[in-house]
Amino acid sequence: MGRTRRNELFWLLLIAACIALFVYQREQHGRVRHDRVAAVAQDPNADIVTGSIAEKPARKTQPVGRYYVPLGSYGSIDQATRRYLDVAQRYPALERDNKLKINTVKLKGDGTFHRVRMGNFVSEREARAACGRAGFSAAQCPVVATR
Questions:
Q1: Where is the SPOR domain (predicted)?
Q2: Helices (H) and strands (E) in the chain — how many of each?
Q3: For the whole model, what pTM was predicted?
Q4: Looking at the domain covering 67-145, what would its CATH class be?
């Protein structure tokens, strides 16, 4: 078998393996999705819309913090979401530890604002450390204490 023929055979097998893997993953995804839809269909409260379809993992109880860092206030949820995702990409532990949030606030006469915050730190020092790990300078991270 010539070298060109072996190259062609190699690429043909590689492409076939990729297609087989793609089909397998699609079948597995469809099976999981079908099971989840069936479980929801049996639930008498299936018509109730919630914020998430995923079950939340059990969390350890942590002391409620008093310090947070405002990262921006936006008139559009799209802009707030972009900021949230930017920070989550820089420092994924904030999102995993539920320390990164978007709060929606309605102000009389000014409309609705979406605030992006890092928060519920137990100390100012912890908040500043999180800023450093997220790649923010001290000027970009004003720590605010709640009342």
A1: 61-147
A2: 4, 4
A3: 0.51
A4: alpha beta
